[in-house]
Design brief:
The protein contains 24 helices and 15 strands. The structure holds one RNA strand of 77 nucleotides.
Length: about 600
Amino acid sequence: MVFALIKSEIESMKTIIEQCLHQAVDQLKTDGLLPESASPKMHIENTKDKAHGDLATNLAMMLTKMVGQPPREVAQAIIDRLPERAEIAKVEIAGPGFINFFMADTAKFDVVAQVLAQKDDYGRCQVGQGRRVLVEFVSANPTGPLHVGHGRGAAYGASVANLLALAGFKVQKEYYVNDAGRQMDILAASTWVRYLQRCGESVAFPANGYQGDYIYDVADALVEAHGNSLAHPAETVQAGLPADESDGGDKEAFIDALIERSKTLLKDDFEIVFQAALKAILQDIQEDLAEFGVTFDEWFSERSLMDSGLVDAAIEKLQQAGKIYEQNGALWFRSSEYGDEKDRVVVRDNGLKTYFASDIAYHFNKLEREFDILIDVWGADHHGYVPRVKAAMAALNTDPDALQVLLVQFASLWRGGEKLAMSTRSGQFVTLRQLRHDVGTDAARFFYVQRKSEQHMDFDLDLAKSQSNENPIYYIQYAHARICQVLNQAAEKGWAVETQVGLAHCDLLEAEAEKDLAILLAKYPELIARAATAYEPHQIAYYLKDLAQGLHAYYNACQFVVEASELRQARLTLICAVRQVLQNGLAILGVDAPERM
RNA sequence: GCGCCCAUAGCUCAACUGGAUAGAGCAUCGCCCUUCUAAGGCGAGGGUUGCAGGUUCGAGUCCUGCUGGGCGCGCCA
């Protein structure tokens, strides 16, 4: 109740200064120094150097041309017209014409009340204005387990979604399941061959098949459920097939022929094998991601898109718009009319629709579901794909700018000072599950998002695994655990924290470390807005390191559990607020905030 | 060859989107546990921001050209 009142009354320092500057600008206009039409952008920034005060603006330098006076004189003119505010202790001109603001010490701690009142909601803002965002990420083909490359997209996408939700967007998280197409047929054929082998048939495994051991698991499950009722003699299966790569043939031609043979022999039963493989792998992926703290609102099936005729409908639409032509027996989309390098095939000469055709339908469908913003998180190797999808959106009379493709660079894994070579084909890759078991979910999630997504990243397994001071994740979690333990210590002495008492005595907080912490806490909401709109969760990681650093410095500089009750309450209240913000920030990154370590 | 991304301390990376003396961690070297968790703190050294121009009050950030690295350029997905 009390807090609800405070919540609405407290303004951030930045807001206060912005209001003051607006008043000053208005006054400049009435004084005839500035044209009425002028509406300068208010750029107020946190200072890097304490000597420059707490906040600063470059407003005077921005206005210098319009006013026709040197920046420092403009600055003086602005300062002369600033209204008095108790929160502002001092204002001065510095450097080329910056106006520096020094906040009153008492005002600095207003933020503590705000944090404790808003709790999990501290930092929430409304820059999203309730706009509906669809975040599609991971979307790895369900042909095998996720590997560490998918992990980065998963961690990044999940954190971006958390950020956007916090920033006032309505977020839906979606995984596009590529359960149609040739790759899935290859998976089914691979599974069937393993099944035949389990049934005692000596069928050679195709060179282009999925070699991973997980295929055996699916085959075993098939034996369990269907006995050998899906089996055919090896001779029948292999009769008349072209040579595989191992016999000097073409592995692509071989696998296609094998798929055809599987479908011919199995008839409707092919679907049983297909579904068994798909379901098993998809479930594995779902469990894997869930254990990684990554969940989705929707697992969108490519097959459902085809079965419901949406792919045909999308092609039809393009056709009606006159953007489709036929050449060499295939249907082409005129994507080059919209900035793509060349036109693209949507229906092959063999009648099969391309992956791109489904993707057009999928993105069109996303917009039909009335999302305002579409975010796709893709591996950077797919960047060449962006123009054609945007081209399709434009051709379908939708706004291509509604689509934001966020590219995530690959992560190289390092262990023992050596780069780990990975190849998907041979099944020689580190799985996400392996990584999680190796370094733990918290460390993995944190390592993935602590770098800008478009930066190439080195993932040092030894470092992520090390439970030492070298590992930044423990540094942050340790700060949180320390606070919890201090509060426990106080409670054991019968000194439970009473935040109302603490808030009433924030004027006793005079140490530098205390002021530094308060300033850091106040920066958090704008950090959320900035990180969300820039899709940059790594900013949260850096902030949390700073906040943890502030807490550790405070811990070393001051004693919290002291006899003087008012000072004690003020300090405990402050660290409660720090704990809250640590929790909020770690939650965005999907990292646990342990109470003890 | 064309297109996209990247290049910042010995190493891994930031830099609030054009602002003040470019900052952290690791590594190196000094200090600080009879005190609420030393997985911590304080301090020192370390830079021509790949190179060369340009834009302006002001550039790591923007524009042009190079150099070096990654990725992409299928009727694959």
